[in-house]
Specification:
14% of the residues are buried. The termini are far apart. The protein has one helix spanning 3-16, and strands at 20-25, 28-33, 72-75, 80-83, 99-100, 105-111, 114-119, 124-129, 136-137, 142-146. The protein folds into 2 domains: 3-33, no CATH class; 72-146, OB fold (Dihydrolipoamide Acetyltransferase, E2P). Helices cover 10% and strands 33% of the residues. A 4-stranded antiparallel β-sheet has the order 3-10-8-5, with no helix packed on it. The protein has a 4-stranded antiparallel β-sheet with strand order 7-6-4-9, with no helix packed on it. It is flat, with a radius of gyration of 25 Å. With 147 residues, the protein is mainly beta. It is built from 1 helix and 10 strands, in the order αββββββββββ.
């Protein structure tokens, strides 16, 4: 196995947060694990103390329904880094108030050194951009509101 592939595997291990990876390629195999020591600490038993029940009066005020979300939420299809433009010197793909059609490129999410164009799932007007350029995003995190 090539040393560059092994270095790339080590980088993937560090970036992903997994503890161990094993790859087999033909007759060759490599197993990489994070070095961590396990430490045993003495445990002391905690016995809960009895507590007298307390009664509190709660006002019977009607709860207001949660404000309905207006428009369609475009969510991140992956974990990565959000970029609003193709390059630092390029204009942003979209801005608040801009009309978009289904399939238009809204942003780029970089995941594992791959630039992924994220396209609009809905047609409409961009009402809200919920992330900042260069911000890390999670899977299914709301990115935009399109009305």
């Amino acid at each position: 196995m090539d040393i560059r592939k092994i270095k790339k595997l080590i980088e993937l291990l560090e970036e992903s947060g997994i503890d161990e990876i094993e790859i087999k390629e033909g007759e060759e195999s490599v197993r990489i694990a994070r070095g961590g020591r396990s430490v045993s600490l003495p445990m002391t038993a905690v016995v809960p103390q009895p507590v007298a029940p307390t009664v509190t009066a709660t006002p019977a005020a009607p709860t207001a329904p949660a404000e309905a979300q207006r428009g369609n939420i475009q969510r991140s299809p992956m974990v990565g880094t959000y970029f609003s433009a193709a390059s630092p010197n390029s204009p942003a793909f979209i801005s608040v108030g801009q009309a978009v059609k289904q399939g238009d490129v809204l942003c780029i999410i970089e995941a594992m050194k791959m630039m992924n164009q994220i396209t609009a799932e809905f047609s409409g007007i961009v009402e809200n951009i919920m992330v900042e350029n260069g911000q890390a995003v999670e899977f299914d995190q709301p990115l935009f509101t399109i009305v």
